[in-house]
Amino acid sequence: MKTEIILFLISSISLTLMPGPDILFVISQSISKNKTTGVLISLGLCTGLLIHTMLLVFGFSSIISNNYFLFKLFSSFYMLLLMTQEINLLPKIYSNKSNYKYNSPYLKGLIMNLINPKVILFFIAFFPAFLFSKTLDLKIQFAILGLIFFVQALIIFISVSYLSKRIFNLFNISSKSLKISYIKSLIYLIIIALIWID
């Protein structure tokens, strides 16, 4: 295996494990719901990573980078919506069974990843540093790096889903506790801050 790919994998794992919007979202949903919810959130987030990879490969990344501020607003608004629902400041718009599909953990993860402009900008800045071939087409190299990033992120997020719920259960705190709602709300605020910190 080429040195560049090994270094890319090590760097990717390190960055994925760092406190950021995605991993904090997985943790908050896992402890307040269940590990299955955390896994579905993880699948949604990682599907978003694949889509961002395709945007990079096919050259559509400029759409997001050119509308960076707008995407940050969308992402922040989505987090605020989830937070206000959590602390019951707004009616739970997903309570109607006919709208259940919009409350899907998978869809939540997917939306959160897609409307976070930092993901594609990160890919644009990060991937070129680990190009590993002078002969292989650039698009193929980006696709391979994107797939590697997807696999390691999925493994880490799913592992975090299982571990965070198990660790939380050791403290014997109910996921329906009022404290959990406020902990999740605080995490949403941290995520919003991370979105705006450049």
What can you see in these coordinates?
With 198 residues, this protein is mainly alpha-helical. Helices cover 74% and strands 0% of the residues. The chain is built from 9 helices and no strands. It has helices spanning 3-17, 21-32, 35-57, 61-65, 68-86, 105-114, 117-126, 138-170, 178-196. The longest helix has 33 residues, at 138-170. It is globular, with a radius of gyration of 18 Å. The two termini are 34 Å apart. 32% of the residues are buried.
List the keywords:
globular, single chain, mainly alpha, 198 residues, 9 helices
- Average pLDDT works out at 79
Helicity level, as a percent range? over 70%
* Order of helical and strand elements: HHHHHHHHH
Task: Please indicate the count of domains.
Answer: 1
Report, as a whole number of angstroms, the end-to-end distance: 34 Å
Radius of gyration: 18 Å
How does the overall form come out from the CA principal axes? Answer: globular
Structural class, from helix and strand content? mainly alpha
Could you give a short account of the major beta sheet? none
Low-confidence stretches: 89-102
Strand content: under 5%
Total helical segments: 9
Number of strands: 0
